[in-house]
Amino acid sequence: MSEGHIPAAQPGNGPGSCRWAFSAGWIPPESTGHEPAFTSRDVLCLLNTDTGEACVEATVHHSDRDPVGPYRISVAAGRVKHVRLNDLIDPEAVPLGEPYGLVLVSDVPVVAQLAHLDTRDGQRSGALLNGVPGD
């Protein structure tokens, strides 16, 4: 390898994991400002560096009832995809104002993070949550 040369990623050899878990989900029930730009939300951020499409299944875990899912999300090869959890409605909408956990299972390794935006009370705050890889 010559100096400064970075080898190309190989299939199945990219960063990430096939299983992820997030335990700190919570979508604020109120928002301030114009929709959809200022809607309070959680956003699942997925990076697929593989050469094939990633098929990700998400299951939402609740504090007072059985898990719901799978929610199916595809991420094209070599792409990133951001999905608002507020927009997931099939098999049912992710509830607002309730704690939830999220488990992801992918057929190829992906990198997953959860971004949180809270616009209640005319303020804006954000957080980026790293998931726990399960491989």
UniProtKB/TrEMBL annotation:
<dbReference type="InterPro" id="IPR036698">
    <property type="entry name" value="TM1070-like_sf"/>
</dbReference>
<dbReference type="InterPro" id="IPR009794">
    <property type="entry name" value="ASRT"/>
</dbReference>
<protein>
    <recommendedName>
        <fullName>Sensory rhodopsin transducer</fullName>
    </recommendedName>
</protein>
<dbReference type="Pfam" id="PF07100">
    <property type="entry name" value="ASRT"/>
</dbReference>
